[in-house]
Amino acid sequence: MAKLFPTQEIGSIAKPRWRTKGLTQPLTSKDLAEAEQWAGRLGIDDYHDRAKELLSTPEGKDRVRGLLEFSTIYGLRLFERTGLDNVGVGGEQQRVEMYEHVIRGVEGMRVLGHVQSFDYKYFNKAVAESKIHRKHPIYLQEFLDVKENAKGQIKVPITGPYTLVDWSFGGDYSGHKTGSSLKRQKQEAKREFLLDFVEQVIRPEIRDLVDAGASWIQIDEPAITTHPEPADMELFVEAWNETVRGFSCNFSDHTCYPSEIGYKILAQYAPKLDKCSQLALEFANRDNTSLGVDPEHREGYRDLEYFIQNGYEGEFGVGVVHVHDFSGHVPTASGKAVDRNIIESPELVRDRLLYATKIVGDPGKIWANPDCGLRTRSWDVTYSKLDSVVKGAELARRTLS
Amino acid sequence: MTMPPTAQLGGIYPRSEQLIELTRSYDRGKTDRASLEERFDQDTRDLVRLEGDSGFETFSDGAFEWQDQLRPVVDSLEGVITGTRYSRWFDTNTFYKKPAIIGKIAVSKFEPKKFLRAELLPKSKPWEVTLVGPYTLSELSENLHYEARSDLLSDIAHAEHLIIQSLKDAGVSHFQVSEPCLVYRPHREEALTSEELDSALAALRTAVTGSNASFLVQTYFGDATAILPRLLRLPVETVGFDLFETDWSQLKVETEKKLALGIVDSRESNVEEPKWIAETATRVSKHIVSDNIILVPNSDLKFVPRKVADAKALSLVNATRLIKEKN
Fold it and tell me: Largest CB tally within 10 Å, which of A173, A261, A369, B41?
């Protein structure tokens, strides 16, 4: 029997200072003090050799390449040390972030400037200035590094085409407005832009990854739950099915932070997603922090019911730890508040998994993961949270055994 | 339209790249609050200069410090807390802190400076502030206290009335009250019922009545055709709608109210040409007939980068000139 409640990462983790600085400036031994400390914690045996090489390599592509590979190894070892079963690509250390990293590889797109995401967080938003196509492979080198260095299972998270288009300005695709039916014109422009993104950028990328040996690609589509209207949902399904068409590879979806209606509409369309073997979803953010495995205590996980009601038969990656700032009350048994973080206890993770099991029915269909990438948390907090995910999954396993 | 059209900015204006960088640095503990405040002031001054130089008649301070469209109102109320949850702002890629209603709502901590940088606005010109409407605030909050939503709505409306009065005392003469939830409800499966609409409009009346100020009730992100006739009966000077969502070609309405046409798209970077704006406004005014037209962005311009917003703002004013010349 397969292991119940396997654990996985979902996306990016914070980039160490030395990695960020090293991309643009020469590093000193002092800059690598943090790296040395973590090397000890994570068991990075060849730290001194690699550090020496980094410090001695002159400016240029080789040094950047070495730096990116080194930080990827750190991400992988962090995940491995916490005990995660699937370590993804080591926290996406080679990417700017999920949106801009792709945009930089697309001919025809230009970054226009920052727009607010929330509070003092922003993203750099781009516009399609002409018809688009891929300039160069976007995730391939990272995958090759991960494949060479990972000790556990891996998967490749990529940003989905619907989200990339939704988060961009249509620009050239939006064309000239004629003054009537502006809504319909916008929708038609979005479809053309989206299908071009699929054909010209995403499918070539998947082809490269699959040819290089990728067997699991997680398509991140956080934007899809923001437009719960039939026209947009149908468009999403059309783009997804075109994206995965013909590839011999395992695909999963990651979606998070839906609008107020939650996952109800996505649940209606999920069964139509070809080859979508798993939905990894954010739930902890909307849950309360008391222990318990009943609906009253686990209100954040209620939306799982909709997927079952609509006949989705795949697995679920259940978000069991929060990834953003937290300022609420934390009962002692449920974890602790540390600065602006909640460190969920293994018991809280356990109860969330057990409640999810009650809804889904089959514990073999449930994975444990953070709600989303932990990039806004420190490595200490990330480590503690992932440690709780792994220990909580083990507690849940024991409860069911 | 017989009166010359005007242009107006409302809602949250995008922060400049310099301010964005400083807020990030502040968030990382590398910049002190005083430096950040100085840059908020500079962004405000830059916008005020743009408004003045380009010919806007009503001045907005850009609400640069507002973290989301609800926060200053929520922070002024007792019985409401900003919870730990970030929720998506309709179908955008931006988020707001979801308020939680935990007790009876009343105004408790009102400070004008939470709402505007009055000292930076020109004393001789009218000032505008945008507030979330009572219905939208009630819909986007998590109600943990009130048994009847109508009571919640009523208390929010009374509280907002007091906030409006206080802002009026502080020098604000124009208010945009935004009610996107009246026309776009991605958070609800059910359509807006007649009873709900009645309650929402009653709450709006409560909020605005007796304040002797100019009110614009603005709807955006959804099609306002179904409720426009009802909105036009509100005791407000101006009613607005989102031209990129509203199928105005199906309407034939005449009104004595001012109409605020959301005619530049705050969610697309292409800058609308003044000529296109002028022609479209003229076409719309054949279906929704009013002597008075105000050209506005369809929602907060915070969804585009600052330089795009500046260009769109200029286009609005230039379009008013084109229409005046033609008439």
Answer: A369
Report the 3 state secondary structure along A319-375: EEECCCCCCCCCCHHHEEEECCEEEECHHHHHHHHHHHHHHHCCHHHEEEEECCCEC
Asked if A280 and A372 sit in the same domain, the reply is no
Q: Which of A276, A310, A344 delimits the end of a domain? A: A310
A375 — contact with chain B (CB < 8 Å)?
no
Residues A116 and A41 reside in one and the same domain: yes
Cα separation of A259 and B161, whole Å?
29
Give yes or no: residues A49 and A180 share one domain: yes
> How far is Cα B75 from Cα B299, in angstroms, rounded to an integer?
22
| Number of structural domains chain A divides into | 2
Distance of alpha carbon A260 from alpha carbon B87, whole angstroms: 7
The Cβ of residue A260 has, within 10 Å, a number of other Cβ atoms equal to: 17
CA distance B108 to A142: 53
Q: How confident is the model at residue A180 (pLDDT cuts 50, 70, 90)?
A: low
Going along chain B from its start, the domains and CATH numbers come out as 6-326 (3.20.20.210)
The answer to whether A257 contacts B90, with C-beta atoms less than 8 Å apart, is no
Range of the domain at A363: 288-304+311-401
Q: What percent of chain B has pLDDT over 70?
A: 98
| Tens digits of residue pLDDT in B273-322 | 999 999 999 999 989 889 899 999 999 999 999 999 999 999 999 999 99
ipTM confidence score: 0.94
In a domain, A298, yes or no: yes
Q: Are residues A109 and A247 in the same domain?
A: yes
pLDDT at A58 over 90: no
- Please tell me which residue, B72 or A63, carries the higher pLDDT value: B72
Smallest CA–CA separation between B24 and chain A, in Å?
A: 6
Mutate to test the interface with A, among B40, B269, B280 (most CBs of A within 10 A): B269
> Which of residues 274 through 333 in chain A touch B, CB cutoff 8 A?
285-286, 324-328
Q: Is residue A271 part of a domain?
A: yes
Q: Are residues A292 and A166 in the same domain?
A: no
The continuous run of DSSP H or E covering A216 comes out as strand A216-220
pLDDT digits (tens, 9 = 90+) for B149-162: 999 999 999 999 99
Same domain, A40 and A154: yes
CB-nearest partner of B302 from A115, A181, A227: A115
Query: A223, B95: Cβ pair inside 8 Å?
Result: no
Alpha-carbon gap, residue B150 to B147, rounded angstroms:
9
CB of A226 within 8 Å of a chain B CB? The answer is: yes
CATH of the domain at A50: 3.20.20.210
Cα-Cα end-to-end distance for chain A: 12
Rounded to 5 degrees, what angle do the CA atoms B305, A11, A50 make? 105
Torsion over CA: B112, A328, A282, B149 (sign): negative
Residue A104: strand, helix, or coil: coil
Judge if A73 and A29 occupy the same domain: yes
A107 and A223 both lie in a single domain: yes
Query: Could you say which residues from 169 to 188 on chain A have a Cβ atom under 8 Å away from some Cβ of chain B?
Result: 169-171, 174, 177, 179-183, 186
Chain A residue whose CA is closest to B12: A116
In a domain, A39, yes or no: yes
What is the rounded CA–CA span in Å between residue A261 and residue A264? 7
Question: Does the pTM exceed 0.80?
Answer: yes
Task: Spell out which residues of chain B touch residue A285, defining contact as CB-CB under 8 Å.
Answer: 85-86
How many contacts, defined by CB atoms under 8 Å, are there between A and B? 127
Q: Is residue A9 part of a domain?
A: no
